[in-house]
């Protein structure tokens, strides 16, 4: 969570709420975050001197705005320079359910797949909207590339599941 937060703060100072929103609409397809992970990470980054916080008021509410420091910029740049150290972890609960679906009736499996294809389409549409918004407002093409990746991934998953449904129909569920 550390580096995505530093990355977003390198774009502009933000509150924890704004950071959560940014993660959700941008990198959330690849890197999820909750308030339970964002705020402890921000506190730790502040203790390390990678970010600062300023408290202000907006109406009756206290608003804490975080900003990246020079140290935080250096840490972000060092992380961006690292390569080949990332572990690829794919947690896709649907595939685990599919793995054990031999216990279920083919009609139930087909319903599960159809529901999932609809969910994939909805998620893809979110990325299409984000990409289109970035096309209108973004000067950094690299912020669009993950959207393009996500759209292509959802297209692949929809096509793969369509082929799976055809296979199940042809083979009476096996």
Describe this structure in a few short sentences:
The protein has seven helices and three strands. A three-stranded antiparallel β-sheet has the order 1-3-2. Helices cover 64% and strands 10% of the residues.
Q: Any idea of the CATH class of the largest domain?
A: Mainly Alpha
Structural class: mainly alpha
Rg (C-alpha, Å): 21 Å
> Can you list the strand order of the major beta sheet?
1-3-2
Overall number of domains: 2
Question: What characterizes the major β-sheet?
Answer: 3 strands, antiparallel
* Helix content bin: 55-70%
| The CATH fourth-level homologous superfamily of the largest domain | Winged helix-like DNA-binding domain superfamily/Winged helix DNA-binding domain
Could you say what the CATH architecture of the largest domain is? Orthogonal Bundle
Note the topology.
Elements: H1 2-11, E1 14-15, H2 16-25, H3 35-48, E2 51-58, E3 61-68, H4 70-81, H5 93-99, H6 106-137, H7 145-170
Antiparallel strand pairs: 1-3, 2-3
Helix pairs in contact: 1-4, 2-3, 6-7
Descriptive account of the structure:
By secondary structure, the chain is mainly α. The protein has two domains: 2-81, Winged helix-like DNA-binding domain superfamily/Winged helix DNA-binding domain (Arc Repressor Mutant, subunit A, Orthogonal Bundle), CATH 1.10.10.10; 93-170. The protein is 64% helix and 10% strand. It is built from seven helices and three strands. The protein has helices at 2-11, 16-25, 35-48, 70-81, 93-99, 106-137, 145-170; strands at residues 14-15, 51-58, 61-68. A three-stranded antiparallel sheet has the order 1-3-2. A hairpin with a 2-residue loop joins β2 and β3 (61-68). α1 (2-11) crosses α4 and α2 crosses α3. The model has no long low-confidence stretch (mean pLDDT 88). This is PadR family transcriptional regulator. Pfam families: PadR (PF03551). Residues 5-77 form the Transcription regulator PadR N-terminal domain.
């Amino acid at each position: 969570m550390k580096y995505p937060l530093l990355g977003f703060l390198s774009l502009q100072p933000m509150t924890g709420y704004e950071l959560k929103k940014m993660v959700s609409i941008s990198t959330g397809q690849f890197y999820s975050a909750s308030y339970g992970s964002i705020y402890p990470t921000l506190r730790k980054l502040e203790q390390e001197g990678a970010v600062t916080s300023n408290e202000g008021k907006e109406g009756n509410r206290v608003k804490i705005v975080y900003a990246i420091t020079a140290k935080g910029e250096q840490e972000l740049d060092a992380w961006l320079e690292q390569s080949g150290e990332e572990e690829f972890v794919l947690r896709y609960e649907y595939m685990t359910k599919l793995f054990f679906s031999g216990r279920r009736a083919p009609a139930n499996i087909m319903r599960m797949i159809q529901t999932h294809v609809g969910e994939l389409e909805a998620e893809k549409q979110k990325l299409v909207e984000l990409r289109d918004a970035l096309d209108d407002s973004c000067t950094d093409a690299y912020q669009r590339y993950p959207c393009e990746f996500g759209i292509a991934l959802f297209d692949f998953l929809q096509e793969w599941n369509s082929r799976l449904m055809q296979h199940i129909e042809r083979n009476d569920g096996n």
